[in-house]
Amino acid sequence: MPKLKGITGGKILGAANTYIALLVYRLYTLPSYPFGVEYVFELPSAPSNAKEIQEARDNINSLKNRIKQMESKLDILKCIDFNNISVEIDRINRNYQTKVKCLDCYFDDYLSRLDIADKDLRVNQAYDKDLVDKLKKDVYNEVFSHLDKYQLFCNIQECKKNKGYGINASVCHFYPNQAFVDKPSVSYVDIDTSMSGNVIYKFSHYFASTFLQQATKQLNISSRDLFDVFDMLKLKSNGFTIISFGVYWDYYIGKNNNFKKQNDIEYIYDNIPIYNFKSGSKYLLTISLY
User: Fold this and answer.
1) C-alpha angle with apex 15: 14 to 16, nearest 5 degrees?
2) What parts of the chain have a pLDDT lower than 70?
3) Which residue from 113, 156, 206, 274 has the highest number of Cβ atoms inside 10 Å of its Cβ?
4) Whole-prediction pTM value?
5) CA angle 93, 96, 98 (to 5 degrees)
6) Crossing angle of the two packed helices 50-70 and 103-124, in degrees rounded to 10
């Protein structure tokens, strides 16, 4: 448990980690090596995926720290007849005509092996097609479920007087390439929600800003006079639709008999449709009606 620094020194986990460190030291004090010294001190191969490589790296670094803590605890090391690492290495090499190394050497060799395997995966491992396709589908679905709210503006009959505005809501996110492979070493942190959220935010901002493309007469209306102003402007008789940004319309529910809520974004006042959208910016088009 390399990252649980707050509890690894406790009685239970601390004892478990100490026991693991003792087992490592005990490799140097075994009474015999029936399968050969090389078999005992042979390094394992590097894992075949980035996730397990990262876990192995964390575990080795954690074990290194625990080994260093054990170096000074001679009373504990005596229970496995361990005296000095140099003495034990000389004894093994002399008795078995081999070249056993110190623990740090083995740790460094294995970490180097992990680095080589990790670099190879970063360059050569292909993206997980199923994961990428799922993320693309999720981003697409989340964006278009939001754009359904703007269907009102997709059904307007074209005429020569209509003006079009290009709304560029593209976004770019940078993620380590190993986030999109099988068993990645890093998380893509809900990129579908993050990416679609940024597309939606930018679209909302640029959509709202199109209402500022040309100068319009502006009126400051108090909340208590809002519906009286609608009546004075005779919006009903002229077939108007009200587009609002950031207005808390739910406040008026029950305060005016002619005002009703249709759904999350659509309201109606005396047969005048009202659509309420987010502007995408608290500094732009906040509490505005068009």
Assistant:
1) 90
2) 1-14, 154-175, 188-189, 213-216, 237-238, 280-290
3) 274
4) 0.57
5) 50
6) 160
